[in-house]
Amino acid sequence: MLVNLKQILKIAEEEKNAVGMFNATGFDSLQAVVSAAEELNQPVIIAHAEVHNVFNDISMVGPVMVAMAQNAKVPVCVHLDHGTSLNMIYKALANGFTSVMMDASALPYEENVRLTKLITESAHAMGVSVEAELGRLMTGEAGSRDFIQQGKPEDYYTRPDEAKAFCEATGIDALAIAFGTAHGFYSAQPKLDFNVVRNVAKATGLPLVMHGGSGVSEEGFRTAIANGIRKINYYSYMSKAGYMAAKELIESGKTSYLHDVEYAAMHAMKEDVKKAIRVFSCK
Fold first, then answer.
1. Per residue in 143-191, pLDDT tens?
2. From CA 101, how far away is CA 115, in angstroms rounded?
3. Residue 185 belongs to a domain with what CATH number?
4. In the chain, pLDDT over 70 holds for what percent of residues?
């Protein structure tokens, strides 16, 4: 069942849990995520990240994502993750995505407001939800090799007063915040400031989003959810699970067919997604 982000986050708010958003870079990962959600009877968000467009162009994978959501037995939102260009966001809207993220967090505050408001007005007219970001994670969307912010993590944490003004000025449906997570793989357990989550949730009244969710402890997830996180972005460790399964099969010498490797990777990703969904849904 195809739904937008606002609808799926309403479910999370009612149940006081979080919905997982899983980036899909191909048909195998899409199948892994949707089948995992169906098996657990939980809503889910499937996403195409702008940084991943080189692997599968949105014009090809987008219609497939929408069709899979429409045919799913559970609520599924089709989301554009970290849309940094207007061109990509408009492509997502044209391809039937039900949610887009306008990520102008690297720009000055005033420009972030201007662009986010522009996209929100266009998206809302089409029944599409909008997520935006305020504050910055220490690493970029492509992981630690992309870029590393200078200074201390807390220098980039989301400020409650600024978040309140931002949400009121833009009319967004969900806000991604910075409170200690990072994209990519963690070398050590992240130190999360849950006071930031609590205070921003209180100031804005909106569902909050955790980026850099892979690698956070189960306790960390549950505490973040208890303080207002309603959407958790998860990709790196799902991808790693698929990679390790593929690597193991290749090294075993049991097959020379790519489809066998892809199938093994899909099942490994599915099992990893199921573990994450169980934690996010507080089951």
1. 444 444 555 666 678 999 999 999 999 999 999 999 987 755 554 556 7
2. 11
3. 3.20.20.70
4. 90
| Cα→Cα distances 272→36, 169, 254, Å | 9, 38, 23
Please state the pTM of the whole predicted model: 0.92
Structural domains counted in the chain: 1
Q: What is the largest CA-CA distance in the chain?
A: 58
The H or E element containing residue 252 is helix 236-252
Residue 56: partners with Cβ closer than 8 Å, 6 or more residues away: 25, 26, 48
Tell me the average pLDDT across 188-207. Answer: 89
Return the active site residues. Answer: 81
Grouping H, G, I as helix, E, B as strand and the rest as coil, residue 129 is strand
As a whole number of angstroms, the distance between CA 277 and CA 271 comes to: 10
Mean pLDDT, the chain, rounded, equals 91
Domain that holds residue 9: 2-280
- Count of alpha carbons within 13 Å of 199, Cβ hemisphere only? 13
Q: pLDDT tens across 55-83, in order?
A: 999 999 999 999 999 999 999 999 999 99
Q: Sign of the C-alpha dihedral, residues 142, 56, 39, 246? A: negative
Q: Which amino acid is at 80?
A: L
